[in-house]
């Protein structure tokens, strides 16, 4: 199965550790890609560092090729150009917008069977609307 994880900021923290551990565990039996709105290779867990991390372009989709080494994950960063806050305010609104863009990207560009959304759930209705019941109009 093709499993995608959607996480807002894949840095170093407890929630990130949980997502990374879950993705590594699922990867033992399935094809896993972690999609995030921010990932810095110098401030992340080792499992996400060398598995094919790149920033996805908005207009051209280039799927990751090959299988990463055992224990590493493919990480795709989408929408990192959007601000985290505006003049120090609206961090939650910016996180919602970034995750909405991430969800839209995944729905329109990524074939998947299972999506696991962490922390910011604004993209769940989008994923359900376009992929419910074996939706045939897109990549799901």
Keywords:
single chain; 140 residues; alpha/beta; 5-stranded parallel β-sheet; 32% helix; globular
The poorly predicted ranges are: 57-64
Instruction: Tell me the fraction of residues in β-strands, as a range.
Output: 15-25%
Radius of gyration: 14 Å
Strand order of the largest sheet: 3-4-2-1-5
Average of the residue pLDDT scores: 79
Number of discrete domains: 1
Shape: globular
Order of helices and strands: EHEHEEHEH
Major pleated sheet: 5 strands, parallel
How widely separated are the two ends?
11 Å
* Global structural class: alpha/beta
* Count of individual helical segments: 4
Helical content class: 25-40%
How many DSSP E strands?
Answer: 5
GO molecular function: GDP-Man:Man(1)GlcNAc(2)-PP-Dol alpha-1,3-mannosyltransferase activity
Keywords: Transferase
InterPro entries: ALG2
GO cellular component, one term: endomembrane system
What does this structure look like?
- This protein has a five-stranded parallel sheet, with helices on both faces.
- 29% of the residues are buried.
- Helix 3 runs parallel beside helix 4 (124-131).
- It contains four helices and five strands.
- With 140 residues, it is an alpha/beta fold.
- The protein has helices spanning 14-27, 46-49, 91-109, 124-131; strands at residues 2-7, 31-36, 54-55, 74-77, 114-117.
- The longest helix is centred in the C-terminal third of the chain and has 19 residues, at 91-109.
- It has one domain (2-131).
- Residues 57-64 have low confidence and may be disordered.
- The protein is 32% helix and 16% strand.
- The N and C termini lie close together (11 Å).
- Strand 1, helix 1 and strand 2 form a beta-alpha-beta unit.
């Amino acid at each position: 199965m093709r499993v995608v994880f959607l996480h807002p900021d894949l840095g170093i923290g407890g929630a990130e550790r949980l997502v990374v551990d879950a993705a590594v565990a699922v990867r033992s039996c399935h094809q896993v890609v972690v999609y995030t709105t921010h990932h810095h290779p110098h401030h992340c867990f080792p499992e996400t560092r060398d598995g094919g991390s790149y920033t996805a372009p908005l207009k051209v989709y280039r799927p990751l090729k090959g299988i990463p080494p055992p224990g590493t994950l493919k990480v795709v960063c989408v929408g990192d150009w959007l601000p985290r806050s505006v003049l120090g305010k609206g961090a939650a609104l910016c996180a919602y917008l970034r995750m909405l863009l991430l969800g839209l990207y995944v729905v329109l560009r990524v074939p998947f069977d299972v999506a696991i959304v962490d922390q910011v759930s604004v993209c769940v209705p989008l994923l359900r609307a376009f992929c419910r019941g074996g939706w045939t109009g897109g990549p799901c």
